[in-house]
Design goal:
Blueprint lengths: L12 H9 L1 H12 L3 E5 L2 E6 L2 H9 L5 E2 L3 H8 L9 H11 L9 H16 L6 E3 H18 L4 H16 L20 H25 L7 H7 L10 H32 L1 H11 L14 H13 L8 E3 L3 E3 L2 E3 L4 E4 L1 H5 L15 H4 L20 H18 E5 L7 E3 L4 E3 L4 E6 L4
Parallel strand pairs: 2-8
Antiparallel strand pairs: 1-2, 3-5, 4-12, 5-8, 6-7, 9-12, 10-11
Helix pairs in contact: 1-2, 6-7, 6-16, 7-8, 7-11, 8-9, 11-13, 11-16
This protein binds protoporphyrin IX containing FE.
Length: 440
């Protein structure tokens, strides 16, 4: 006889607030107290959570047709029904087949120049000796990168306009909108939700103009927008206009804050661990600084990026809603329940990562980890579409910054992770003083 749900903390508000405020501590405590997997009836739905590699593997390998997207009621009005994050089943599979070629590893070389130029441009705005909020700097860099990767740099004015409007949408996206549709309140055009809607409308108009321009000037371009417009589904049809806007919005939303936070953490840990910094700088000295694509091939650089994302998973758990019952060990989870591999539990498992609280990039040089032990980008049929783009961007930006500047960490206390919205990020902006390195 199978039990339906594993035990877990009582109530809905308290466990939800704990997951929001201190996800790692809460999940570790519950796994210890109730066993793994455990059940939480969160405010946004019932969830069975696991950090065990064997169960994570089962969840990722499970038939994708049995899963629905999580959090649709709150997210769909923001991202649109055509966003990959909102699709499930056959429409989701079909969409990934269309989109994934734009994000494959071999495409990355095409983006290397854009990534380096964006890092250089943003850093030029700081004077020698300036104190910067690292997170502000990396956010500007990663937003500029994703905007230029999507729209190209052929039409400078239009790209600038799209960048400006994207920033406006981001600045009006209150974190709470992503959790509760009840706060999507319209009030004579004056509420925060109305402000977001009007910024989205402006961005949409600019996108429409850009799409029209490309239709009137149909040359081959290799930016993401052009590739999406040229791409065909298996039945030969192309992406619908509305749907195209939803997908572009998703890339902007999913693709910039995440990478900006990861870059901020990498700079923080490198400057808190001078040995690691020296080793990375030594590696960078072996390659030509104006060949940014070579930064992404450096073994220690890759280890630094992997360790940063292990220590600070930006998304602490990835969720899927069951369309039909699923057997997970001795539990028979009913349809409607979500199953969630907890990235943060897997990444802090001391049996897999000894001394899990320490920043030790070397561990990634000594051994490899399975996709159920190391999952900063989730896994299975929904694994982050931009994973290759994000890690490539991190290598190019870190390589560019460290080749041109030296930094001094000005944080006197350890910086802790806190919830930003769906993502986790550093509690402080991470203050660094920068000095330009002399060439040669
Ligand atoms: C360090 C940076 C990033 C991290 C840590 C990250 C993490 C994630 C995670 C955990 C998921 C959910 C996966 C799952 O449910 O199994 C996801 C989904 C997604 N990410 Fe990322 N991401 C990053 C950067 C990017 C970038 C740069 C892009 C696009 C340019 C992107 C686009 C997407 C998309 C489209 C999805 C939805 C995939 C689907 O539902 O099929 N992400 N990401």
């Amino acid at each position: 006889m199978l039990d339906s749900l594993p035990p877990g903390p009582q109530g809905r508000w308290r466990p939800t607030l704990r997951i929001i405020r201190e996800p790692r501590q809460a999940l570790q405590e519950w796994a210890e107290r109730y066993g793994d997997p455990f059940f939480v009836h969160a405010l946004n739905g019932p969830v069975v959570i696991t950090g065990r590699a064997d169960l994570i593997q089962q969840v990722f390998a499970h038939d994708a047709a049995d899963y629905d997207a999580f959090g649709k009621r709150a997210l769909e009005p923001i991202l649109g029904a055509g966003s990959m994050l909102m699709l499930s089943g056959e429409p989701h599979r079909r969409e990934r087949k269309l989109v994934m070629p734009m994000f494959h590893g071999e495409r990355m070389r095409a983006y290397a120049g854009i990534m380096q130029a964006a890092a250089e441009r943003v850093m030029k705005s700081y004077a020698d000796g300036a104190v910067l909020s690292t997170l502000d700097a990396t956010t500007s860099i990663s937003l500029e990168i994703i905007v230029r990767a999507i729209f190209g740099s052929e039409r400078e004015q239009s790209a600038e306009q799209l960048l400006k409007l994207s920033r406006k949408v981001m600045s009006r996206s209150w974190p709470i909108f992503f959790f509760s549709p009840k706060l999507h309140i319209s009030l004579l055009g004056l509420s925060p939700w109305d402000c977001l809607s009007s910024a989205k409308q402006e961005l949409r108009k600019a996108l429409q103009q850009e799409v029209r321009y490309r239709e009137e000037h149909p040359e081959h371009r290799d930016d993401i927008l052009s590739l999406l417009m040229e791409a065909r589904y298996e039945d030969g049809t192309s992406i619908e206009r509305d749907h195209l806007f939803h997908e572009l919005g998703t890339f902007l939303f999913a693709g910039h804050e995440t990478t900006a936070i990861a870059l901020g953490w990498a700079l923080y840990h490198l400057h808190s661990n001078q040995d690691c910094l020296a080793r990375l700088e030594g590696e960078l000295a072996q390659v030509e600084p104006d060949k940014p694509e070579s930064f992404a091939t450096l073994p220690y650089m890759k280890a630094v990026i992997s360790e940063t994302l292990r220590l600070h998973p930006i998304v602490t758990e990835v969720l899927r809603v069951l369309r039909s019952p699923m057997q997970l060990e001795r539990w028979e989870l009913p349809a409607g329940t979500a199953v969630a591999p907890a990235v943060v539990l897997a990444h802090y498992n001391p049996a897999v990562y000894p001394d899990p609280d320490r920043f030790l990039p070397e561990r990634f040089l000594k051994r490899s980890y399975s996709s159920a032990e190391y999952l900063p980008f989730g896994g299975g049929h929904r694994r982050c579409a931009g994973a290759a783009f994000a890690t490539y961007e991190m290598a190019v930006v870190l390589g560019t910054l460290l080749s041109n500047f030296s930094f001094e960490l000005l944080e006197s206390k350890p910086v802790k992770p806190v919830r930003r919205n769906i993502t986790m990020g550093p509690a402080s902006g991470i203050r660094l003083r920068l000095h330009a390195k002399s060439p040669g």
